[in-house]
Amino acid sequence: MNVENWTAGLLERGYCIIPGLVPDATVNGLSDDLDPIFAATPLSQGHFYGFSTKRFSGLLKRSRHAETLVTQPDILAIVQAILGKACDRIQLNVAQAIEIHPGEVRQFPHRDHDMWAGEKGTHEYLINVIWPLDPFTKANGATQIYPYSHGAGGMAKGEVGAPIIAECEPGAAICFLGSTAHGAGANRTDRPRRAIVVGYSLGWLKPYENLWLSYPPEVARTFSPELAALAGYVQHRPNLGNYEGQCPSLLLTDQMPEHIGAIDALRPDQAEMLAQFANTARE
Question: Rounded distance, CA 180 to CA 154, Å?
């Protein structure tokens, strides 16, 4: 896979669909693990979430296969290339399962970055990846994406234009920017359709999913260091998201001291600036 080409396409059109990115075994294993949770989860309530749709998060503690999607190397490379320009590190924004039932209406076209109130257009806030667990078709409510609706230029348009239907098979990754208008389609079939949404955002934002409640230390201790960092157990320099002045990954160690001291977590440029200031102050 050529990460640079997919990144360029995502930036140009606001979306891209990458086929065959994860094997069938991962998709099928994840779907099997989530079967009882889908069955037990009540329907959502609200015109945004839908009245004939089921949603639940916390996927990293529900199936070992979820990590394969969240840490897919090519996706992380694309996300880092785009979001890394505006943050010290990226973070997991959400890992959510969605099941759209027959009769659900088309979702209101929206931009996911509108969950944050900051100024839009200078940089992207997040990138979402939809992983179909069932084939995505126009009939069963495949996501509708509005090309070129992203960024400052796209947001300045009066209308978002006509959507494309993100029809694809399980194993594909449907990627779109936080500034890209989109929405789920109406399910006009007699069967539910399932998908996973994995979102990544700038590391200094409050994530959509409260990661520390979804994955408290006793859960996150089972994660790989890469996954734990994505799930919030790392600082965003300078010193953001610390625990008692240190990296929260300390909570995942076997021996947690009762009392700890604060330690700077600065970017190299900040560390150099402060060191020069301190040397001058000592003169």
Answer: 8
**Which residue carries 């960024």 as its tokens?**
151
Cβ pair 247, 234 in contact under 8 A? yes
pLDDT tens for the chain, 283 residues long, are: 799 999 999 999 999 999 999 999 999 999 999 999 999 999 999 999 999 999 999 999 999 999 999 999 999 999 999 999 999 999 999 999 999 999 999 999 999 999 999 999 999 999 999 999 999 999 999 999 999 999 999 999 888 999 999 999 999 999 999 999 999 999 999 999 999 999 999 999 999 999 999 999 999 999 999 999 999 999 999 999 999 999 999 999 988 888 999 999 999 999 999 999 999 988 7
Phi-psi region of 226 (alpha: psi -120 to 50; beta: other; left: phi over 0): alpha
Cis ω for the linkage preceding 42 (within 30 of 0)? no
The residues, any chain, with a CB within 8 Å of residue 48's CB and separated by 6 or more, are 107, 108, 110
Q: From CA 132, how far away is CA 169, in angstroms rounded?
A: 7
**Phi first, then psi: what are they for 18, rounded to 5°?**
-105, 115
